[in-house]
Amino acid sequence: MKAKDVDFSNLITLNTDQTVTGSKLYTQPIVANKIIKTGGTEDQILFANGDTTNVGNFLPKYFPHAMMQMIIEPNDDIRNQGIRIMKNKANWDSFVLTGCNADPSNRDGVWKMGSTSSQFWIQKQEDEAQDYKGLIIDFDCTILKFNNQLVAPLPTPPIGYAIQQSLVTHSDPSTYWNTGYTIFSVMNDAAKHKFSVTHRNLPLNAVIYAKKQPSSPIVWTNAVAIDCYIDPDGHIKINAI
C-alpha cells in the first residue's frame, strides 16, 4: 500500500495537532500532562461533567486567605449550624482572632476570643502570655473577671462604719487619764479582715448620762458627750476622763 492512498484525517496521530469534533468514549483512564478546556482561564476549575467554576469559590484546606466576605446561612437548627471551630486536641484551646495582619507574627491590634479547658476569654493577642488580662468567664458562668478584678458576683464591700446603741455603766479604778478603756466590741475575729487595710480609728458619737432619776421606768438625764472611737480590731473604746 502506498502512503498517498491512506487518509490520515480520520485518525488520531501522536505527532500532529488535531481537533476532535465528535464525542469519544474511553473505558480506560486517560493519562496526560494537562487537559485544557477551550476558552478556559487559569482561575477556573473543570468539573467532571464539563462545567467550570471560579477557583475563588473554594477555600483551600490549609492556609486559606479569602477576600471579600463569607455569609453562613443556617437552614435548620441554628444551635448546631454555622461556623464551628474544634478544640485543639493537645490543650483544648479554641480561639477566633480578629483584626489580624498579613504577617501572622505581627500581633499589633489583634484580638482573640475563645475558650480554654476551663474559661472563656476575650483579650488582646499580645497579652496572651499574661493569663490574667482581658475578660474572663469561668465555665460555670458564676464568676466574671476583668484584668483579674472580680466583676461578678460583686464582692462584699469593706466595713467602713458601724452603728451600735447601748447603755453601759462601769467602774474601773485602774483606768488612767487619757487612756483607751474598752467598754464592748461590735466585731468578731472572722469579720476583722473586712476593714480597710489602712489601719485607723473611726470616730464615734456617744454620750454619757450623769444622773439617774428614781422613777419607773428609770430616766437618765444630764447627757454629756464623751470622747470615744472604734479601733481597727473592732473594739469600742472610750478615753478615760
Model description:
With 241 residues, the chain is an all-beta fold. The chain folds into 2 domains: 117 residues, no CATH class; 60 residues, no CATH class. It is built from no helices and 14 strands. The protein has a 6-stranded antiparallel beta sheet, with no helix packed on it. Strands 9-14-13-10 form a 4-stranded antiparallel beta sheet, with no helix packed on it. It is rod-shaped. It starts with 43 loop residues before the first strand and ends with a strand.
Helix content bin: under 10%
Radius of gyration: 43 Å
Overall, the morphology is rod-shaped
Give me the secondary-structure category. Answer: mainly beta
Percent range for β-strand residues: 25-35%
How many DSSP helices? Answer: 0
Mean pLDDT across residues: 75
Main sheet? Answer: 6 strands, antiparallel
How would you write the strand order of the largest sheet? Answer: 3-4-5-6-7-8
Q: What's the number of domains?
A: 2
Number of DSSP-assigned strands? 14
Order of helices and strands: EEEEEEEEEEEEEE
Low-pLDDT segments, ≥5 res: 162-171
> Gap between N and C termini, in Å?
146 Å
List its salient traits:
4-stranded antiparallel beta sheet; mainly beta; 241 residues; 14 strands
What is the strand and helix layout of this fold?
Blueprint: E1 44-46, E2 52-54, E3 94-98, E4 111-115, E5 119-124, E6 135-138, E7 144-146, E8 149-152, E9 180-185, E10 202-204, E11 207-213, E12 219-225, E13 228-230, E14 235-239
Antiparallel strand pairs: 1-2, 3-4, 4-5, 5-6, 6-7, 7-8, 9-14, 10-13, 11-12, 13-14
